[in-house]
Design brief:
With 153 residues, the protein is of the alpha+beta class. The chain has two domains: 2-28; 33-134, Sandwich (Immunoglobulin-like). It has one helix and eight strands, in the order αββββββββ. The strands form two sheets. The chain has a four-stranded antiparallel β-sheet, with no helix packed on it. Strands 5-6-3-8 form a four-stranded antiparallel β-sheet, with no helix packed on it.
Length: 153
């Protein structure tokens, strides 16, 4: 009876190891990984300064609902004179942009290993504050329709 116990114990250990490996794959490796890299500013002497940003999805899954916010310091009085978005994905300028000190660009989805480049022209060499987020909405299940809801406070 002892060999059967060892066999069952070995199968349980293998099952636990497989479950841990699957969990690690789903939560750490098989996810979208958004990274942004500011491009060095290029100055056209006595005319304007051109800066930029590259946003990449280095993960294995598409990044849904990507929001990119570029905010210049209001105290520095830096205004965006021109803004251009380049990339294979359809990006939309939601707010700000030209003649503002901020810009908000959004994408429905950024594919795996995809990139988006944003160029701007400003009068001064001020590095903006950059924020890149992705939001995956939770899916409502059939059972959620019958369960009591929490207050939306």
């Amino acid at each position: 009876m002892l060999p059967w116990l060892i066999l069952i114990l070995a199968l349980v250990v293998i099952a636990i190891a497989a479950a841990v490996a699957f969990y690690y794959w789903q939560t750490r490796l098989n996810i979208p990984i958004l990274k942004h890299t500011p491009l060095p500013p290029y100055e056209i002497p006595d005319v304007i300064l051109v800066g930029g940003l590259v946003v990449e999805n280095r993960g294995r899954q598409p990044a849904p609902n990507v929001k990119i916010t570029i905010q210049f310091d209001p105290q520095a009085a830096t205004m965006i004179h021109h803004l251009q978005v380049k990339g294979a994905e359809n990006a939309i300028l939601r707010s700000g942009g030209e003649r503002h000190n901020f810009a908000t660009v959004s994408l429905k989805s950024l594919r795996p290993h995809g990139a988006l480049v944003i160029y701007w022209a400003a009068a001064r060499a001020v590095q903006p504050q950059i924020n890149v987020t992705s939001y995956q909405p939770t899916k409502e299940t059939f059972l959620d329709k019958f369960l009591p809801r929490k207050n939306n406070a």
